[in-house]
Amino acid sequence: MIHAGPIDDSLLRLQPFHISEHIWNGAEDRVLKVRKATQSELCGVEILATIQDLLQRAVFIGVAQISYFLVENHLISALVERWRPETHTFHMPFGECTITLEDVAMLLGLKISRAPITRYATMDWGALVERLLGMTTPESMLVGGRLRMSWIDRHFSNVSEHIHSQEQLERYTRAFILRIIGGYLLTDHSSSFVSLRYLSFLEDLDACGQMSLGSCMLVNMYRELCVCTNYDHKEIGGSGILVQLWAWYRINIFRINLYIEVLMAFFYFYNRWNYALYKPREETKDKIVKYRKYFDRLKREDFLWQPYLELLPTLPPYCFEDSQVWRSTVPLINFHIVEYHYADRVMRQFGMVQHIPAPPIHPEKLHDLSLRGKDNMD
């Protein structure tokens, strides 16, 4: 009888609970539902032009220009099957690779260094919304420190109503950023709400520009990937857009088989794909099997270790001003979520020779931390 492995389980200790174990044992294929909010009216050239200066102060101008596009559930699901929660890397036939702080900075233009996103997680949420967004929120729109995003769409869709003072513009910008956070950066499993914990960091937009929102988003995505290696989970939150962009930029088949190839429209890499996203998609039941077989045959030359080098001269400075931390092995923090960034396991992604990495430093109990306990206790 063939054993699926690993032969030595000193590293991959969670194999009995991993989705790959279920696949090997003949379980039914699982396709995750990738959570992402519906397209908002808070977009468009007019809005970006109106609040461009404020978005630049908050270092949010890059991610604000992402076009709305579909995320392929089958692709994300097949990648999750390759994700290992013990190492925070995708295990491919040629070795390990992962989504790093560099990818977040290059693809989204978000800050990845400076102050972490953490503080007390409870406050008077209604008062916070009224103070920072300038409107009273009905209780029906607030659920456990989360705001229904349809309320944001209803009150902030028309930018012309919010341009009569600097204070109004700043309030509108906060609502705009909050909608992006809940829409496709830190999406929860409802796809309808956004946590107001993040609104508290938008009070001073200049200070917001010094916060590490990029690492906050990456650690949240790590947690979602880790949790979804459990076969019983049927949906994934976080930022499916980041995972898909990462795959498009680093895996050759997704670069070659574009329906339409276009040049970058703005500064950032994702805009290269803005008009290539509406290719008719084959949503057949066995599509995940096709992705799985492709990853099984993936060779080292099929993976782009440094896909961003050719476009570095086109980027604004803040995309690479924190490059000194790209190779750091450090814990990333988003309130109760703490996950390690193991750059030392993927040194080829930084143009370096891969050494034998140290064993991961990651207490498995960190995956069990939540905000479900008493206030100021958990």
Kindly describe this structure.
This is Serine/threonine protein phosphatase 7 long form isogeny. It comes from Cajanus cajan. Residues 64-360 form the Aminotransferase-like plant mobile domain. One of its GO terms (biological process) is meristem maintenance. Pfam families: PMD. With 378 residues, the chain is α+β, with helices and mostly antiparallel strands. The protein has one domain (30-368). It has twelve helices and ten strands. It has helices at residues 19-24, 45-57, 73-82, 101-108, 125-133, 149-156, 166-185, 205-208, 213-227, 240-250, 252-256, 287-296, and strands at 33-34, 83-84, 89-92, 95-97, 142-143, 146-148, 193-195, 235-236, 329-334, 337-342. The chain has a three-stranded antiparallel β-sheet with strand order 2-3-4. Strand 2 (83-84) and strand 3 form a beta hairpin. Helix 2 crosses helix 7 and helix 3 (73-82) packs parallel to helix 12. The model is unreliable at 256-270 and 275-280 (pLDDT under 50).
- In what order do the strands lie side by side in the largest sheet? 2-3-4
Reading the helices and strands in chain order gives HEHHEEEHHEEHHEHHEHHHEE
The radius of gyration computed from the alpha-carbon positions, rounded to a whole number of angstroms, is 21 Å
Largest sheet: 3 strands, antiparallel
Distance from N terminus to C terminus (CA atoms, Å) equals 46 Å
Task: Give the overall average pLDDT.
Answer: 86
The tally of structural domains comes to: 1
Helix content: 25-40%
Instruction: Label the overall shape.
Output: globular
> Quick one: how many beta strands?
10
Low-confidence stretches: 256-270, 275-280
Instruction: Please tally the helical runs, counting DSSP H or I stretches of 4 or more residues.
Output: 12
- What is the structural class? alpha+beta
User: How large is the share of residues in beta strands?
Assistant: 5-15%
